[in-house]
Write a structure and sequence with these properties.
2 strands; mainly alpha; two-stranded antiparallel sheet; about 325 residues
Length: about 325
């Protein structure tokens, strides 16, 4: 089956937005809000767009575990090797203890919940665990009830409230369930055409969300939930429109390449954040210098990693 280049470009733009959003020298508001307003929702929407009904729930679970959780384990293991070296070098066992807790708990961010809000964080690879839960739970619900989309939306809202106000559960379970709202939107978009008035409304909400609200999906934070959800859809629609234009330019190939390798790039970006290479390489604390370094680092090491057969198999890069 031939790949949809436009959707790969969308994922490429989304992945660049993730890296830029994690360049902490960019002013928080509203510039970083632009990236956070759509980059993670975009990936969940696209995942839903590619959803295929699978009655073999156990087989689907095994496939998603291999595709998402195994890369998490590999990346997290490299974190622990680094933490072990640091603990030995600095004679500080806390480095390793914090590292072990972070990878076993799988929390992507500090949370605002009453319980377990300050567990050591694992960083961007929380997405792998969250997407795993999102896909597995959604498929299970749909297999058992073909009209379960309303139930899915209810679970997503409940998970958002539970995570934000009560408890941060392990393995990014609640962020994964919360993200089902975007996954369902992707499923719906695949089935039905979307009217221009609705797209225009979503883009308007996106602008409002950027200026006056904030999304942080790793901690289930939405400044104003309805506006932020619609706004994320508007941002994704805008990226789709940009991608159709980019497809006709010289940027098509590099961005579609980034999109095709997006999961691997996410893991390498997580290594970069965990090891803090910007600081170790004395990159000036100027946002465009650090952003260029981070993007270049991810691209170079992705090219190197794809030379390894087991990496290509693990990330499904054989096509």
């Amino acid at each position: 089956m031939q790949r949809n280049v436009t959707l790969d470009i969308m994922k490429g733009i989304g992945m660049v937005a993730v890296i830029l959003g994690h360049t902490y020298t960019i002013p928080t508001h509203p510039y970083r809000n632009i990236f956070f307003s759509f980059h993670m929702p975009l990936f969940f929407i696209l995942a839903g767009y590619f959803y295929k009904f699978d009655q073999d729930v156990k087989g689907r679970l095994k496939k998603d575990f291999k595709r998402l959780v195994v890369p998490y384990i590999l990346t997290a293991s490299l974190f622990l090797v680094y933490d072990f070296i640091k603990a030995c070098y600095y004679h500080d066992a806390n480095c390793l203890v914090f590292g072990i807790i972070s990878v076993l708990y799988g929390s992507g961010s500090l949370h605002s919940s009453i319980y377990l809000s300050n567990v050591p964080i694992v960083g961007p690879i929380w997405f792998l665990l969250a997407l795993f839960w999102c896909k597995v739970v959604y498929n299970y619900l749909i297999v058992n009830n073909h009209h379960a989309n309303y139930l899915v939306l209810g679970i997503a809202i409940a998970a958002t409230l539970l995570d934000r106000y009560v408890i941060n559960l392990p393995f990014s379970l609640l962020p994964g369930l919360s993200a089902m709202v975007f996954y369902v939107i992707g499923v719906i978009v695949k089935k039905y055409s979307v009217s221009w008035p609705l797209i225009t409304l979503c883009i308007f909400c996106w602008i409002v969300s950027i200026m006056y609200s904030h999304i942080w999906m790793a901690q289930c934070h939405y400044g104003f939930y309805p506006i932020d959800v619609l706004g994320a859809c508007g941002g994704t629609a805008f990226v789709y429109w940009i991608s159709t234009i980019v497809r006709k330019t010289c940027f098509s190939h590099p961005l579609s390449w980034v999109g095709f390798h997006s999961l691997l790039i996410l893991c390498i970006h997580s290594l970069d954040m965990n090891f803090n290479f910007c600081s170790k390489c004395n990159i000036p604390e100027i946002w465009y210098c650090q952003a260029l370094f981070k993007v270049s680092f991810c691209v170079i090491f992705t090219i190197i990693a794809t030379r390894l057969a087991f990496v290509r198999r693990m990330f499904g890069l054989s096509s």
